[in-house]
Amino acid sequence: MSVESPLMNTYGRLPIALSHGRGCRVWDTEGREYLDALGGIAVNTLGHAHPKLVPALQDQIAKLIHCSNYYRVPLQEQLAAKLVELSGLARVFFCNSGLEANEAAIKIARKYGHDRGIDLPEIVVYERAFHGRSIATLSATGNPKVQKGFEPLVPGFVRVPLNDVAALEDVARSRPNVVAVFLETIQGEGGINPARVDYLQAVRRICDERGWLLMLDEVQCGIGRTGKWFAHQWADIKPDVMPLAKGLGSGVPVGAVVAGPKAADVLQQGNHGTTFGGNPLAMRAGLETLRIMEEEGLLDNAARVGAALKAGLERELAGVAGVADIRGQGLMIGVELDRPCGVLLQRALEAGLLVSVTADRVIRLVPPLIMTEGEASQVVEILCPLIKSFLAETPA
Ligand SMILES: *Cc1c(COP(=O)(O)O)cnc(C)c1O
């Protein structure tokens, strides 16, 4: 146990503390400036201290922060209506985080099964998936490191590899209790691994044939990050259940599970709830985030700046031995190396750039959606030389 810290030792933290930010720039308590290509892990949609978001939140704080779900909350109804409009789905439940949205999705799937006479319903989940750190969501997660030490895991999950239609069809033939398929449209923590468009379409077809729910975890890839409101819209399909969180409140915690007609009425009074979920401050943050995104054309910006960022990385890293892949869509990009590269976090920090490394060897870029092309080229200019010198000096 570390003697000095009153905090539990749950995070390996970098040795700086941020004090404030503006747009895609942040400053630490020593006055050093950083370019933020991490956005608080795909959370700060509008960057820092957005000039339209700040006064709106100040206004809301001065009126009403919280009031409980004993009462109607008009801002909840407005944000739900907006999410329904953008997704083409039907109803919304609000919570506070990604794992809570996923927990609600898992409850919907189980209840959907019970309502259809399946007493021990099963949910198909994926290798390398990440759905959160509660006992149920870590059980759905496909990463033994997240699960280790917390057994017994919650039963009722069947695991398959991503982008393998035959594996899912095998499950369809052999597991009569399956009620839902649950995946990230683009795996985030697992290393920026997209579900292919044809795979998503095949999963939609299989779910329709079997009466299963298609549940797409868009906690990280949703809310405009890929250049569409939701990443599955690139495949021209709709899910039955879609958990959201990270980018929805642009930094204020907001989680939501959006459901289509097959799933929208599964949860009834007394089945689910949360004290904080849907409070006026969180709802105002969500509404203003979506409004400002529309006003400023941030979907187009994410697509355009993301393409420029990816092209820049491809250009600077072309032919560099040790760079295994550059992938992703919009402002959700992974640079996979052929060896663990966690040390790059510290080096990027020293060079004035915030990024993350996930799945040991994937450098992840999930910046604010307001990033400019100029800032994207700065990311390329700072990051690529660091990657090259790291690869040159580190044995594979
Ligand atoms: C971050 C994340 C979660 C968990 O969200 P929390 O808010 O940390 O609970 C779940 N699913 C995906 C895809 C995520 O990226």
From TrEMBL:
N(2)-acetyl-L-ornithine binds at residues 133, 274. PROSITE patterns: AA_TRANSFER_CLASS_3. Its EC number is 2.6.1.11. Its cofactor is pyridoxal 5'-phosphate. It is an enzyme of class 2 (transferase). It comes from the Bacteria. The keyword rRNA processing does not apply. Binds 1 pyridoxal phosphate per subunit. Pathway: Amino-acid biosynthesis; L-arginine biosynthesis; N(2)-acetyl-L-ornithine from L-glutamate: step 4/4. Pyridoxal 5'-phosphate binds at residues 130, 217-220, 275. One of its GO terms (molecular function) is N2-acetyl-L-ornithine:2-oxoglutarate 5-aminotransferase activity. It holds the Pfam family Aminotran_3. Gene3D superfamilies: Aspartate Aminotransferase, domain 1, Type I PLP-dependent aspartate aminotransferase-like (Major domain). It catalyses: N(2)-acetyl-L-ornithine + 2-oxoglutarate = N-acetyl-L-glutamate 5-semialdehyde + L-glutamate. The modification N6-(pyridoxal phosphate)lysine is found at residue 246. Keywords: Amino-acid biosynthesis, Aminotransferase, Arginine biosynthesis, Cytoplasm, Pyridoxal phosphate, Transferase. InterPro entries: AcOrn/SuccOrn_fam (IPR004636), Aminotrans_3 (IPR005814), Aminotrans_3_PPA_site (IPR049704), Class-III_PLP-dep_AT (IPR050103), PyrdxlP-dep_Trfase (IPR015424), PyrdxlP-dep_Trfase_major (IPR015421), PyrdxlP-dep_Trfase_small (IPR015422). It is found in: Cytoplasm. Belongs to the class-III pyridoxal-phosphate-dependent aminotransferase family. ArgD subfamily. Homodimer. May also have succinyldiaminopimelate aminotransferase activity, thus carrying out the corresponding step in lysine biosynthesis. This is Acetylornithine aminotransferase. The gene is argD.
